[in-house]
Design brief:
6 helices, two-stranded antiparallel sheet, alpha+beta, 8 strands, 6-stranded antiparallel β-sheet, about 45% helix
Length: about 210
């Protein structure tokens, strides 16, 4: 076998392998999309299976609140990383602009640059949770009970965050089964419901109704 023939064989083999990988990936995406739509139909949700130019998402009511699941791509076009994001609306009044997430490994640097953020005075809680809000006093008042702080801390420890009135959970990659999808949906809704229940207990903030439910 000549050197030129060897190169040709190697090139053809590479093309075959790449084609097989692309075909496998497309098949897996079709299976996943069908699984999402079947799950949405079982719950009476709406959704879009997605495609080259369409996002993949499902959403609907669950246990008194609304949940959305969608595919999120992060990073540059050539090196995009796929995440499955689940968002559960918190059906209770929150402080204006309220947000919460875990303090990361670089929190010391963040403190130097932008400050410690809003703190509640509960040292154990403040060590783990970075808080945001348009009115710091409202945030402190809202988190003035152990039950509310515990509910927010549960979100943070579940590697989730509170943003724009919702609990957001992002899972790396695709979900391999309907069971995994259901577990993500119910876990996210459970975290949101815990904040709702704690937030309604003696809150001095005006309660916001859950729209449509």
């Amino acid at each position: 076998m000549t050197h030129h023939t060897q190169e040709t064989v190697a090139f053809v083999a590479l093309v075959v392998v790449l084609a097989a990988m692309v075909g496998w990936g497309l098949r897996e995406r079709r299976v996943e999309r069908a699984m999402w739509i079947a799950y949405a139909a079982r719950l009476g949700w709406r959704g879009e299976p997605g495609g080259i130019f369409q996002p993949q998402w499902i959403e609907g009511p669950l246990e008194g609140g609304e949940v959305t699941v969608n595919v999120e791509l992060r990073g540059a076009r050539a090196q995009r990383t796929r995440y499955t994001r689940c968002t559960a609306r918190i059906g209770a009044a929150l402080p204006r602009g309220f947000g919460a997430h875990a303090r990361g490994m670089l929190d010391g640097v963040t403190r130097v640059i932008v400050g410690a953020g809003i703190e509640t005075g509960d040292a154990a809680f403040d060590r783990e949770v970075r808080l945001f809000g348009d009115a710091p006093d409202e945030v402190r008042r809202f988190l003035g009970t152990p039950e509310r702080r515990a509910a927010v801390l549960d979100v943070v420890r579940a590697e989730a965050r509170v943003t724009e009135g919702c609990v957001n959970v992002a899972v790396f990659g695709a979900l391999g089964s309907e069971q995994a999808l259901d577990e993500l949906v119910r876990r996210t809704r459970g975290l949101a419901r815990a904040i709702e229940e704690a937030g309604r207990s003696g809150s001095s903030l005006p309660e916001a109704p859950v729209k449509g439910y």
